[in-house]
Amino acid sequence: MLGLLFGKRTTAAQTAPDTHDTHARMPVQMHWRSDMTLPVPDWYAMHDGLPDDADDGLQYAYYDAAAAHWLDVLADALPADYRQTGATDFLLLSAQSARDAALVLRSCTQALRAIKESLGPLACDSGNGRYIVLVFASQDDYDAYVSQYQGEGEEAPMSSGVFINAGYGHFASWHDGLDELEAVVVHELTHALLAHLPLPEWLHEGFAVNVECSLLPRLADPRLALYRPDEMAARHADWWNATTIQEFWSGAAFHTAGEGVELAYELAREITALAAREDETAFRAFAAIADGHDAGSAAAIDTLGYPLEHLIEAVLGEGDWAPRPDRWMAASPA
Ligand SMILES: [Zn+2]
Fold first, then answer.
1. Cα(321)–Cα(317) distance, rounded to whole angstroms?
2. Ligand 1 being an ion, which residues bring their Cβ within 5 A of it?
3. Do 6 and 273 form a contact (C-beta atoms < 8 A)?
4. Which backbone phi and psi does 179 adopt, to 5 degrees?
5. How far does the centroid of ligand 1 lie from the alpha carbon of residue 49, in Å?
6. Rounded CA separation 201/213 (Å)
7. Of 179, 174, 185, nearest in space to 111 by CA
8. Which of 10, 44, 75, 130 is the most exposed place for a label (fewest CB within 10 A)?
């Protein structure tokens, strides 16, 4: 069982997802944002248009139809010849050849399947509508689209693939950025499948980064690492102390700028992998009940059988590492 959670595995089925251009769509009244240059639905207004008594099935069909309608309108507004194609779990808008579009859909579908397999019963795929992937024909189109969201908590795109978490969360990339998109898709789908759990942020990121490394082994290739293990250990030793560790536990460390953020992801990756490796069954039980309000402290005692600070000790050595939620307000940066 050990190593199964984040272990390498081969996906059994290599078959193409069932693609269909004409998906039976329920009629929906669209509402559009007036502050965007390219068409983007007003998802708050769209939400209000959903009947109060809508069950999960109706809700899914409503958002899925709205998403498909949006992509039609967006395709018309874009300069090149964009088309939408769909698979069971994904909708894609791109100006690629039918063959290339099918390849993108297939790799997304395979990633979703592999992540679900890795997370097992922890995963819950109760999304509203299919996952949307936008693949722009040029970097100009991509930049024009993504820059619309700046000022909404979305940082300027540093890479060629992003997840835009505004309203109906969706992926965006462009023709030459698909390698980068793949890592973003794996990372964000992992978050989406765990979103139903009250996980502390460090564990959310720990899952996402570990799943990325196991599904895309090139990311974990030590030859590509920017720092040697001893250099990384020195950076950790310099950065973490009784104050900064509280930012890690509260989740604030994942939202600050600079070096701290990178070290927080790295620490989350290491301690999550450590706990999973130690006892996978106990780790799964831990992840099912770990709660952000105490960083998962109570759940750790109940399921792992040791306090969370032991995980930090294993990486950083002895120190004042216990989560102290009462200090979190004071510990978070201004
Ligand atoms: Zn993340």
1. 10
2. 205, 208
3. yes
4. -60, -45
5. 31
6. 18
7. 185
8. 10
Q: What is the pLDDT of residue 125?
A: 83
Distance between Cα 301 and ligand 1 center (Å): 25
User: What is the distance in A from the centroid of ligand 1 to the CA of 79?
Assistant: 32
Distance 260 CA to ligand 1 centre (A): 15
Residue 86 CB-density burial (10 A; 0-12 exposed, 13-18 middle, 19+ buried): buried
Model confidence, pTM: 0.85
pLDDT digits (tens, 9 = 90+) for 263-315: 999 999 999 999 999 999 999 999 999 999 999 999 999 999 999 999 999 99
In the chain, residues under CATH classification 3.30.2010.30 are 43-194
Which among 281, 250, 214 is positioned nearest to 10, based on CA atoms? 214
The CATH number for 43-194, chosen from 3.30.420.360, 3.90.550.10, 3.30.2010.30, 3.40.50.620, is 3.30.2010.30
Cα 186 to ligand 1 centroid, rounded to whole Å: 10
d(CA 319, CA 245): 10
Token pair recorded at residue 192: 């989406």
Query: pLDDT (tens digit, 9 = 90+) per residue, 100-114?
Result: 999 999 999 999 999
Q: Provide CB contacts within 8 A for 218, sequence distance 6+.
A: 224
pLDDT single digits (tens) 23-72: 578 889 999 999 999 999 999 999 999 988 889 899 999 999 999 999 99
What burial class does residue 203 get, using C-beta atoms within 10 Å of its C-beta: 0-12 exposed, 13-18 middle, 19+ buried? buried
Read off the pLDDT of residues 178-233 as tens digits, 9 standing for 90 and up.
877 888 899 989 998 998 999 999 999 999 999 999 998 887 777 777 888 899 99
Distance of CA 125 from the midpoint of ligand 1 (Å): 17
94 vs 214: CA distance, rounded Å: 28
| Helical segments of 120-152, H only | 139-147
In this structure, are strands 170-174 and 161-164 parallel, antiparallel, or unpaired? Answer: antiparallel
Q: How far is the CA of 271 from the centre of ligand 1 (A)?
A: 16
How many A from CA of 76 to the centre of ligand 1? 32
